[in-house]
Design brief:
With 343 residues, this protein is an alpha/beta fold. Among the domains are: 91 residues, Udp-n-acetylmuramoylalanyl-d-glutamate--2,6- Diaminopimelate Ligase, Chain: A, domain 1 (3-Layer(aba) Sandwich); 146 residues, 3 Solenoid (UDP N-Acetylglucosamine Acyltransferase, domain 1), CATH 2.160.10. 13% of the residues lie in helices and 26% in strands. It has four helices and 39 strands. It has a twelve-stranded mixed sheet with strand order 7-10-13-16-19-24-27-30-33-36-38-39, covered by helices on one side. The chain has a ten-stranded parallel sheet with strand order 8-11-14-17-20-25-28-31-34-37, with no helix packed on it. Strands 9-12-15-18-23-26-29-32-35 form a nine-stranded parallel sheet, with no helix packed on it. Helix 2 links the parallel strand 4 and strand 5. Helix 1 packs across helix 3. The longest helix has 21 residues.
Length: 343
């Protein structure tokens, strides 16, 4: 359940307000004046709370829920317990996200430079920028209006960050241009040297990393993720892309728009990823690959070749997903037969 010590509830709201936010419809005869005070999961919700059903796996919980209201798809409405108000939506989970944002909007901080922060006199800060204790903003840096710089974050010289960005505690950003409404969760590292060297019998020779990192608008970068700057060209994260925790993105990687990259993925240098690509956790991509628009890469895949648009791959080395799962099933059958023959 939500804890008021950590999350500020902006409710209550009438059911009609929440239906409008969700983009849903109220069944005929529903009292739109019902007041709801919070969101909660089906199994814990009470008469003054709203929940949602997006997966038939939780149908039993829905049928036995005490929630005052629930967001459901049209086909699920008939299973609602007596007395529960409904908001009918084609995409209940999306609708729930919008309703939850209504109750718990992203916190906004008053524009203030806190004691203990260090802001270079040549830095330019927009209106209502909050700089937390211990944060450092370097020479010539520019921070857009409404942005928040967390405690002990370091914003390097001449870095540019857009409006309404949230830069978490202990992050570091250098050699980067960051758009509007970008979130960097705690511990993110942006713009450090890429892993570039020339081999030599006498010892490795460092290749200067002279590119930048460009993060476009509306990106969300998970905690302790690292994004190396380019060697000579730029490392680019496309608009609306979300990256989970503990992801490594190497120099010169270019990621398209609205991609999803799950935790512990590693993407080697100069790989190009198209738009709307989904990459599962712990996947590894070698360098200089091209991943087409809409491709899907399963968790723990080892990708060593190009992946075509909308292609689905799995396994290590990665192969078409159907082939991979057929081979896994075949090995299981062989092992079972071998075990029976040994008895």
């Amino acid at each position: 359940m939500t804890d008021s010590r950590f999350f500020v509830n902006h409710g209550p709201f009438a059911l009609s307000e929440l239906a409008a936010v969700a983009g849903g419809e109220l069944p005929a005869g529903t009292d739109s004046r019902i007041v709801l005070r919070d969101v909660a999961p089906l199994s814990l919700a009470g008469p003054e709370q709203i929940s949602f059903l997006d997966n038939r796996k939780y149908l039993a919980e829905f049928e036995n829920s005490y929630a005052g209201a629930c967001i459901v798809a049209p086909g699920m409405a008939k299973y609602a317990p007596a007395g529960m108000a409904l908001i009918i939506c084609a995409s209940p989970y999306k609708a729930y996200a919008l309703v939850a944002q209504k109750f718990y909007p992203r916190p906004r901080h008053a524009g203030v430079i806190c004691a203990g922060a260090s802001v270079d006199p040549t830095a330019k800060l927009g209106t209502d920028v909050c700089v937390s204790p211990g944060a450092v903003i370097g020479a010539g840096a520019e921070i857009g209006s409404g942005s928040h710089i967390g405690a002990n974050a370091v914003i390097g010289d001449r870095v540019m960050i857009g409006a309404d960005a949230w830069i978490g505690p202990m992050t570091s950003v250098c050699c980067a241009l960051i758009g509007d409404n970008v979130t960097l969760h705690p511990g993110v590292r942006v713009g450090q040297d890429g892993f570039g060297f020339a081999p030599d019998p006498a010892g490795f020779i460092k290749v200067p990393q002279l590119g930048r990192v460009i993060i476009q608008d509306n990106c969300d970068i998970g905690a302790n993720t690292t994004i190396d700057r380019g060697t000579s060209s730029d490392t680019v994260i496309g608009e609306g892309t979300w990256i989970d925790n503990l992801v490594q993105i190497a120099h010169n990687v270019r990621i398209g728009r609205r991609c999803i990259i799950a935790a512990q993925t590693g993407i080697s240098g100069s790989t190009e990823i198209g738009d709307y690509v989904m990459i599962g956790g712990q996947a590894g991509l070698t360098g200089h690959l091209k991943i087409g628009d809409g491709a899907m890469i399963a968790a723990q895949s080892g990708v060593m070749r190009d992946v075509g648009p909308r292609e689905r791959v799995a396994g290590s080395p990665a192969m078409p997903a159907k082939q991979h799962f057929r081979e896994v099933a075949s090995l299981a059958r062989m092992a079972k037969l071998r075990g029976q023959s040994d008895e």
